[in-house]
C-alpha cells in the first residue's frame, strides 16, 4: 500500500510540473503578444498622424523621441518629433496621454487573457490528470508489472524519462528497453493528445485576442479623434459616440460568449432539466422573430405529434435562437426562413431551421462548429464565429446531434435531433 501511495504522489508531481510549464508558456506568449500589440498601435497611430499632417508619409524626415533636458518627469514630458533635413521641427507630439491609453488597452487585454487562464485552470488540471491516469494505473498494477519482471532500475528509468520531458517540445519518450515498449507507446500516445489539446487552447486564445483587437482599435481611434478636434465638431462627436457604443456592444457580446464557453468547459454551467414541449418552444421563437425582424418572412410548421423532451428550456432556446439569428444574417431581405418541429424516421424528436441564404460549401460545413471559424463568404457579415460553437456545446450536453444540409447560393437546413 505504501508503494502504491508513493507511485501516486510521483504521478501527481509530474502532472503539476506539466501544468505549471503550460501556464508559464501561456503567460509568456500573452505578454509577448500584448507588447507587440502596444508597439504596433503606437507606431500605427504616429504614422497616421504624420499622414494626416503632411498629406503623405515622407521617409526622408528625421524622427525621434525626445525628453527636454532638466526634466524631472520624463514620462510626462516625453514627445515625438519629426524634423526635416535642416533639423527644422515640423511636428511635435506629446506622448504621455497616448501611452496611458495604450497601457490601459493592452492591460485590459492581458487581464482578459489571465481570466481565461483562471477559467481553464481546473479543466486543464483535470485533463492532465485524466491523461496521466492510465500511466498511474499501469504503475499501480503490481501483478501485471511483476509478470514483466520489471526491476527497481526500470521503474527509475520511467520516472527519469518523464521528469526530463519538456511538454512544450515535440520530443517523445524513448526508454530503449524492449520490456517497456508497451508502456512507451501508451505514454507517447497520451503526450501527443495532450499537446494537441494545448495547441487548440493556444489557438483559441490567439483568435480571441485577434477578435478583441479590432473593437479596441476602433474605440481608440475615435477617442483620439474626439481628443483632437471632436469636442467642437458636433458631427464628429455624434459619429464617434455611435461608433464607440457599437464597438463596446460588440466587445461585450464577444466577452459574454467567451465567458459562456469558459464556464461550460470548466463544468460550471449546469443544466436545469424539465419536460419541454418542442412545439411550444419553437412557436415562442417564431413569435419573437416576427416581432424583432420585419425584414424576413418567417413560417412555422409544428409536428403532427406532441414532441416533448427532458431539456433545459433556456439553453435549448438559446441554441435554436443562434440558428435563427444566423439564418436572418445570411438570408436576403424578404426571403423565407422556415421553422419546423417533428420526429425522424427513428422516432427521435427534432427542431429545424431552414433558410434560403448564401449557403455553405462542404468544406465549410465540416468546420462550422469550430470556435472563431468563419467561411470566406461569411466574413463580410458582422459576427464573432462563436455562436455555433455555443449551440453545439448546448446540444452536446443534451446528448443531441446536428444534421446539416447546405448548398452554396441555395441555403442551409440545420436540424437538431434530441434523444
Automatic annotation (TrEMBL):
Location of this chain's protein in the cell: Membrane
Residues in Histidine kinase domain copies: 207-419
GO molecular function, one term: kinase activity
Cross-referenced SUPFAM superfamilies: ATPase domain of HSP90 chaperone/DNA topoisomerase II/histidine kinase, Homodimeric domain of signal transducing histidine kinase
Organism superkingdom: Bacteria
Main location: membrane
InterPro entries: BphY/WalK/GraS-like, HATPase_C_sf, HATPase_dom, His_kinase_dom, HisK_dim/P_dom, HisK_dim/P_sf, Sig_transdc_His_kin-like_C
SMART domains: HATPase_c (SM00387), HisKA (SM00388)
Full protein name: histidine kinase
Phosphoprotein among keywords: yes
Chemical reaction(s) catalysed: ATP + protein L-histidine = ADP + protein N-phospho-L-histidine
EC number: 2.7.13.3
Residues annotated as transmembrane: 27-47, 98-122
Keywords tagged on the record: Kinase, Membrane, Phosphoprotein, Transferase, Transmembrane, Transmembrane helix, Two-component regulatory system
Amino acid at each position: 500500500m505504501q508503494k502504491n501511495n508513493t507511485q501516486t504522489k510521483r504521478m501527481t508531481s509530474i502532472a503539476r510540473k506539466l501544468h505549471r510549464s503550460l501556464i508559464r508558456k501561456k503567460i509568456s506568449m500573452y505578454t509577448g503578444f500584448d507588447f507587440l500589440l502596444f508597439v504596433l498601435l503606437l507606431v500605427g497611430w504616429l504614422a497616421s498622424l504624420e499622414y494626416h499632417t503632411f498629406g503623405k508619409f515622407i521617409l526622408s524626415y528625421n524622427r525621434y523621441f525626445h525628453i527636454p533636458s532638466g526634466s524631472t518627469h520624463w514620462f510626462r514630458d516625453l514627445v515625438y518629433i519629426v524634423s526635416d533635413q535642416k533639423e527644422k521641427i515640423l511636428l511635435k507630439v506629446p506622448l504621455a496621454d497616448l501611452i496611458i491609453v495604450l497601457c490601459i488597452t493592452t492591460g485590459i487585454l492581458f487581464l482578459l487573457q489571465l481570466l481565461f487562464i483562471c477559467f481553464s485552470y481546473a479543466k486543464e488540471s483535470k485533463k492532465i490528470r485524466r491523461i496521466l491516469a492510465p500511466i498511474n494505473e499501469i504503475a499501480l498494477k503490481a501483478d501485471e508489472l511483476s509478470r514483466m519482471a520489471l526491476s527497481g532500475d526500470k521503474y527509475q528509468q520511467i520516472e527519469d524519462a518523464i521528469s526530463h520531458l519538456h511538454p512544450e517540445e515535440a520530443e517523445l519518450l524513448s526508454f530503449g528497453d524492449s520490456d517497456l515498449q508497451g508502456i512507451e507507446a501508451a505514454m507517447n500516445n497520451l503526450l501527443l493528445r495532450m499537446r494537441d489539446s494545448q495547441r487548440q487552447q493556444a489557438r483559441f486564445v490567439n483568435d480571441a485576442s485577434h477578435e478583441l483587437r479590432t473593437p479596441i482599435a476602433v474605440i481608440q481611434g475615435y477617442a483620439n479623434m474626439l481628443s483632437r478636434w471632436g469636442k467642437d465638431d458636433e458631427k464628429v462627436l455624434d459619429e464617434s459616440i455611435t461608433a464607440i457604443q457599437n464597438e463596446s456592444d460588440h466587445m461585450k457580446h464577444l466577452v459574454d460568449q467567451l465567458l459562456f464557453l469558459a464556464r461550460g468547459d470548466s463544468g460550471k454551467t449546469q443544466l436545469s432539466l424539465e419536460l419541454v414541449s418542442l412545439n411550444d418552444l419553437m412557436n415562442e421563437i417564431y413569435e419573437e422573430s416576427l416581432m424583432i425582424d420585419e425584414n424576413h418572412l418567417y413560417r412555422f410548421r409544428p409536428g403532427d405529434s406532441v414532441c416533448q423532451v427532458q431539456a433545459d428550456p433556456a439553453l435549448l432556446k438559446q441554441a435554436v435562437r443562434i440558428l435563427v439569428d444566423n439564418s436572418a444574417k445570411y438570408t436576403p431581405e424578404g426571403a423565407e426562413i422556415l421553422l419546423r418541429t417533428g420526429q425522424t424516421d427513428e422516432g427521435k424528436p427534432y427542431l429545424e431551421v431552414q433558410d434560403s441564404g448564401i449557403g455553405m460549401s462542404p468544406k465549410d460545413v465540416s468546420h462550422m462548429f469550430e470556435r472563431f471559424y468563419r467561411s470566406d463568404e461569411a466574413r463580410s457579415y458582422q459576427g464573432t464565429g462563436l455562436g455555433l460553437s455555443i449551440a453545439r456545446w448546448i446540444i452536446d450536453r443534451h446528448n443531441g446531434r446536428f444534421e446539416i444540409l447546405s448548398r452554396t447560393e441555395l441555403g442551409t437546413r440545420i436540424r437538431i435531433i434530441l434523444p
